[in-house]
């Protein structure tokens, strides 16, 4: 079994924290983050990355959903909490963390979805994130257009 990198583990904890936030809307972000940090394996995660992504995605989830919603092939209410959490996590990284290459963000989201999501959820996540990366990352060569010479 391949070793999980501290960055992947941080992203897994972000998805768990966002999942918890989605199911317990009365909980504050700081309470949820502390619950996650109390996990015995959190010391193997990149704590700074967790904090940056979780609080960014948590604090901007309504705004992010405005951009994710039009790309969905179903009503937003039909997203399961894992899919929503992964999309929010990845959106935050795509929008606010240009130092992370978009293929890494998409791959991490797919792998985490394979671990925590439904059987084919990763295909759905991949399709949405491909479209989001085209909108948010100008360096995405799949979506650049060139002027004819």
Describe this protein's structure:
It is a single chain. The longest helix has 18 residues. 34% of the residues are buried. The termini are far apart. This protein is mainly α and 149 residues long.
User: How many strands?
Assistant: 0
Global geometry = globular
Order of helices and strands: HHHHHHH
Mean of residue pLDDT values: 92
Gyration radius from CA atoms, angstroms: 15 Å
Distance between the termini: 50 Å
Q: Report low-confidence residues grouped into runs of 5 or more.
A: 143-149
Tell me the β content.
under 5%
Per DSSP, the total helix count is 7
For the biggest sheet, the summary is: none
Report the structural category: mainly alpha
Helical fraction: 55-70%
Secondary structure blueprint with pairings:
Elements lengths: L5 H18 L5 H9 L9 H13 L1 H8 L12 H16 L5 H15 L4 H16 L13
Describe the structure concisely:
The chain is 64% helix and 0% strand. The chain is an all-alpha fold and 149 residues long. It starts with 5 loop residues before the first helix and ends in a 13-residue tail after the last helix.
């Amino acid at each position: 079994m391949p070793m999980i990198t501290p960055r992947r583990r941080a992203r897994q904890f972000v998805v768990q924290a966002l999942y918890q936030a989605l199911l317990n809307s009365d909980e504050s972000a700081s309470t949820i983050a502390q619950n996650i940090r109390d996990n015995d394996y959190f010391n193997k995660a990149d704590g700074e990355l967790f904090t940056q992504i979780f609080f960014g995605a948590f604090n901007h989830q309504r705004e992010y959903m405005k951009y994710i919603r039009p790309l969905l092939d179903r009503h937003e209410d039909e997203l399961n909490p894992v899919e929503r959490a992964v999309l929010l996590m990845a959106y935050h990284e795509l929008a606010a963390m240009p130092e992370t290459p978009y293929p890494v963000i998409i791959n991490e989201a797919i792998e985490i979805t394979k671990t925590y999501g439904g059987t084919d959820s990763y295909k759905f996540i991949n399709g949405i994130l491909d479209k989001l990366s085209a909108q948010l990352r100008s360096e995405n060569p799949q979506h650049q257009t060139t002027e004819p010479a």
